Amino acid sequence: MWYKKDNQEPEPKQMIVRSFFLGMLAVLPFFGLDWQWDNSPHLQNLWKIFSTSLYFFPLLLSTFSFAFLEESLKHFAVLRLGKHLQIHFTQVIDGVIYSVAVALGFSFAENLLYFISLLEYFDLSDSTLWNVVIFRSIATTFGHSLFSGIFGLFWGHAFVSDGVTTKHSFSSSLFFRHFFRTFRFHIIRSHILRNRISTRGHEKGDLVREGLLLATIVHTLFNLFLEIQIFGMPLTPFVVPLLVGGFLYLRKQFLLPNNIQILQPVRKEKKYE
User: Across-strand partners of 229?
Assistant: First the structure.
């Protein structure tokens, strides 16, 4: 859907396919950690003790942690496009397109592995199996596309920005140097949401961290809506306005002049960090 909206300078199809497969590969470490958790009774017992003493907080912490892990893996996957991005990344919206392509690959592999794991408990003729798989496939595919689209938008702003770069590589933006400054979302509030370019300059890594954190928060809300109940009532219906509102916001970004104009000078004049 987003790929077709990029009608000024469409991304090469081989880059989109490569992004998709990188997203599939990003699932492997996540499922490896998940398997380690399932086969570590000692860790699970510690978590039960922790959970019973702090009520809702452990659920929030675990949900946020898993969301952060998934968004981080997709973040690193899209960066594995490496030098090819220097050639083809020319618009802010390109960040959305590449990130969503990675998200679709991630979601496809995640749903495939989830389906295989369910075969241990359900028969192929069981309608419950297909109801669960279909619902999960649709929900997680749209969800991952939204989360990564949000990150991709801010990553796109950072990529084409003439902001201040750090001496560290761009891929180090995930780590915790100045990480907690991002909770203020200063760059997003002051510039991105107002659709204006920063005139003072900023660290690209700061903007990426803000985008990653915002994507993680939306991902956390999505998972909580699917998992918890309040006074016996499920919050699953709230997933719909979350997804619809998010996609309408991303759709608007493809109409804004600052996001669709072709910006090449910064990319060509100096090495991207």
Answer: 234
* Alpha-carbon gap, residue 35 to 40, rounded angstroms: 9
Q: In which element (H, E) is residue 49 found?
A: helix 41-54
pLDDT at 151: 92
Please compute, for residue 223, the number of CA atoms within 13 A of its CA located in the half-sphere on the CB side.
Answer: 19
Q: In residues, how long is the chain?
A: 273
Measured distance between the N- and C-terminal CA atoms of the chain, rounded to whole angstroms: 30
Q: What are phi and psi of 254, to 5 degrees?
A: -80, 0
Tell me the pLDDT tens digit for each residue of 131-146: 777 887 888 899 999 9
Could you tell me if 169 and 205 are in contact, meaning their C-beta atoms sit under 8 angstroms apart?
A: no
Chain segment 214-241, per-residue pLDDT in tens: 999 999 999 988 888 887 788 888 999 9
Strand partners for 234: 229
Domain boundaries, the chain: 10-267
pTM: 0.80
**What distance in Å separates the CA atoms of residue 122 and residue 194, rounded to the nearest whole number?**
50
8 A C-beta contact, residue 20 and residue 102:
yes
Residue closest to 157 by CA, chosen among 233, 210, 79: 210
Contact 204, 170 (CB under 8 A): yes
110 and 133 Cβ atoms separated by less than 8 Å = no
Each residue's pLDDT tens digit, 184-204? 666 666 666 666 655 455 567
Work out whether strand 233-234 and strand 229-230 pair parallel, antiparallel, or are unpaired: antiparallel
Among 234, 267, 244, 220, smallest CA distance to 91 is for 267
Token pair for residue 3? 């790929």
